[in-house]
Amino acid sequence: MAEKNEKPRTIHTVLRVPFEMALGPTWTRFFEGLREKKILGTKCKECGRILVPARPFCPRCFEPMEEWVEVAQEGTIITWSYVNYTYFGVTADMIPIVPTRIKLDGVDGGWGGRIGGFDIKDFDLVNKKVKVGARVKAVWSGERHGHLRDIEYWEIIE
Amino acid sequence: MGRAVAVIGTGQTRHGRRDDVSYPDLIKEAVKAAFEDAGITSQDIDAVVYGSMPSMMEGVAYNHFYFADALRVVGKPLLRTETCGSTGQSIAHTGIYWIASGMADIILVVGSEKQHEGDAQATMTTIPEAFMHADFVGGAPVAFSMQSREWMGHFNIDEDKAREAAAIISVDCHDGGLKNPYAHIRVNITKEDAMKARIITYPVRLLDVCPSSDGACAVIFASEDKAKKICKKPAWVKGTGFRGEEYFSGDSSKAVWQSAIEASKEAYKQAGITDPLKELDVAEVYNPFTYQQLMFLECLGFCPPGESPDYVVKGVFSPGGKLFCNPSGGVLCTNPIGAAGLIRLAEAAMQVTGKAGAIQVEGAKLALSHAMGGALQFNGITILGSEL
Amino acid sequence: MVEAVKSPEFPVKEYKTGNKDTVLPYNWALGPTWTKFFNGLKEEKILGTRCKKCNRVLVPARTFCPSCYKDMEDEEWVEVAQEGTVETWCLVNYKYYGQPKEPPYIIAQICLDRADCSVTHFIGGFDLSDPDKVREKMKSVSRIKAVWSKEKHADIYDIAYFEPV
Amino acid sequence: MQKVGIVEVAMTPGTESSLSLMEFTYKPVKEVLDKAGLRRDQVGTYVLASTDIMHSGMSCANAFDWDAAGAFMKPASREEGDGITAFIYGCMRIMSGRHDTALVVGLIKGSENAENDTITSCFADPFYSRPLGIQETTAAAMQMRLYLERYGITEEQCAKVVVKNLGNALFNPYAHIKKRVSVEDVLKSERICDPLKAMECAPKSDGVCAMLLASEEKARKLTNNPVWLKGWGSSMDTFYLGDRDLLDTQLKTAAVGAYKMAGISDPRKEIDVAEICEPYAFQELLWCEELGFCAQGQGGKLIDSGVTQIAGDLPVNPSGGVLATNPYVSRGLYRVAEAALQIRGEAGQHQLDKKVNTALACAGYGFAGQWHGVAILGN
Q1: Domain coverage including residue B47
Q2: Suppose B267 and one of B102, B239, C94, D280 were both cysteines; which one would form an S-S bond, judging by CB atoms 3.0 to 4.6 Å apart?
Q3: Residues B134 and B262 in one domain
Q4: How many domains are contained in chain B?
Q5: Which of A11, A56, A59 sits opposite D127 (nearest CB)?
Q6: How far apart are CA D362 and CA D288, in angstroms?
Q7: ipTM summary value
Q8: What does the pLDDT look like over A106-128, one tens digit per residue?
Q9: Does B74 sit within 8 Å of C34, measured CB to CB?
Q10: Which has the closest alpha carbon to D52: C59, B3, B61?
């Protein structure tokens, strides 16, 4: 048995494993759309649902989703939260964040984004302005890279 | 389905921050306890099922290799099942199917997590799709807060009423944790404390959130013949259910959580349960967040949709209520993720066999255990009973 | 993972991809047995445990005997020899991300005297640059002994490598 | 015990794909469903095999894989392990009598992951084996040296496995590496981890394999040509290499279990073809011994005799095996699929020139083969 003076130790390390994912034709086209300030979805020929981000196939009907649709850049908040804590990879200067799920007009289902355009450090203000059911619209960033952050944030429309 | 299956023994580690032992030793602590509880040795075991959260959580991938000795599986078959947070239920299901299929008679099922070896929230950010989702999801609290908010919005639930109900759940669980010898969090709290605790991810406050725990749980399952031979009072598997939704969490409503509803329906059907609130004696519901438990009370059919806060405030799910939920303190007090769903099952088994000690629900005969996981995707259920 | 070798670039692809490196922190608990084992290395001692049931001495020390499943209390600490014989070895002569040091190096299984299993470690102390010469030399190597690092951190690298006797 | 039949299989080629992992997985699943004439929701249950650390950087792999596997709102599970474990779990779900069909999917895009050696070094414990550079290649190299020295197996004999398997792969449309090579070429390839040469190590491949299983009654309805599971055995070894005899692995235990269940007493005579998992060339010889195809230490003579050639008495890896195609997680399911295709007579250009009644498929993973599973299939 370990003697009393030998307090069990721990070893600290950071592990990094590299990966490189293929975006594939569907998501490549979706991200190219963002570069052109377009939000693209695909429509299922069986159930008629339009999903954003675009999908290669309908998860429910399991048929290819080949019909592309440019969807509205405005929608309604389904839900939101207020992130105010740090963890590995997220430092104090990166918070708070107001993540949200938005139902874009004409789209079935919701997709994610961040609320912005006002001082989100003020929680009471956030809680006053951001409501389930509130209307939002996309605000595009000046420089776009075919990346999700090409939409800088979603702005509340009064 | 197939052959009848029973739980003949359970074992848990002391859960908490376990820097005092290495990971394999933590596993062994639970395995040994389960053997002792069942009164058998590793020689009686036909096979082992193991599971944990993603390997990256502790930085050892395929850690069933590393744990082979601690799991007592050398020279025997092993399956490793993993379904994210619902792993604890899924590994139990693997063991149950294995015996029901006739391919084995006695199986050791082990789930574990040693969250203090890694950074749980950072690991969780590797679950959502890297280019579509990861940016918006800051670990589990955000996903669950978003879901709570969606639920309140959908049913137009008064925020203060939900807040009060969540606080009652928090108090009930923390009281349970104090009495449960294995629990991680042991604090005496009041409703007031819970309602005013620090905000983590609005509306979730500190006392609405589970801890990060180290711990393991082992459960031994046996076929009908073996169970009757070995065990005086086995806990019989009455029904199981498992369902999963789409990966992109926006694709289906999370306010009316279909996978939880359908998984429980499947289990109730097998168990011949038509009115769960009336027929179940106790439930171990997966509740990493108090608000989550509110939603589950509805999805699992314990009360009508949108009405769980009313029921909770009335004391229906509190000690002495019609269906006491989480006498063990639940995930809210103890959360070694890969083990957490199996701990629910072990606690349910202990309840229906009268082994739950200080947290025993008097005369419990039928118990539900549950776990959920994924990007708000998966729900698994196992119902145990004292009678075959 | 020791970053002795720079992360390789993925080959350039003709289709669109995204890089997603997983970088995560860990704090691994050694537990009392391995704490004692590694602290032993710091004092230039190689410690094993003897299972009181099967009588085998296992190195590194174990909290329980993997075959008898007996507890720590049933194990007896034993200092084993710093010399032993080579059971098998390989010469690593290629690079991959995450490897422990710059190749070439030899990894071997070594049976230390007084132990009933073999330990893994490096073999070194001679020129490894020519694989053919290494193979020729290793044919005649059977006995080897531990060479200790000057600076010790109570980890497995406290033994720098084993060298032919 | 309910009899289980393989109804249909589909797989992707092992070559690098530019599809996203989601699209890549969807295709063979859809193909299997279309072949069987089933809709996604008509399948009873799903079992996936994928591995967090070999999953393009996304953990909880089943979360991402759920959609493409077709498992939306179905009773389902996931094995974090070799694809052959998903196969047997799918079989067990049917044997339990609860489901009459099961769809099993093993998936990986090796091209998106770090090198296999980087990843397998993460299997090692963090204190001892990992800092000393133990991963699957170094463990295999030490196993090989022991094999050469203890039994006098020659490097030429090991190289012959590469010649045979890459040659067989020439006729397999799903193979990743197809090459006509000589023993000389193999021996001259770089000694990356002496005694292992570069050409003796499997590549890193992409690969999804989907397989539809059914109960006896249902299988007969869905196909005229079902292949039945006859036997299964699997076993796990102890962790530390130093605690094991690397030439006495748990494949023996696994094989004994599978043969017993299938009623096989003389595997060398009763098995018509074997698809086995040989990420390192010499392992095919060692595994053949442990499977009872020849006596201990006679693996070298076995390959010399030509028995394991595609036209031999007991062809081993007519598909080209793992040396040709190594989609790490799904490679075990590929073995089962290839064995099933041989029995059905649908293997195409690498179909054996004889009637195949009984086939063996096995898979192993972990350092020096810590875990092994063996399946026996029959017509």
Answers
A1: 5-120+212-235
A2: B239
A3: yes
A4: 2
A5: A11
A6: 11
A7: 0.95
A8: 999 898 899 999 999 999 999 99
A9: no
A10: B61
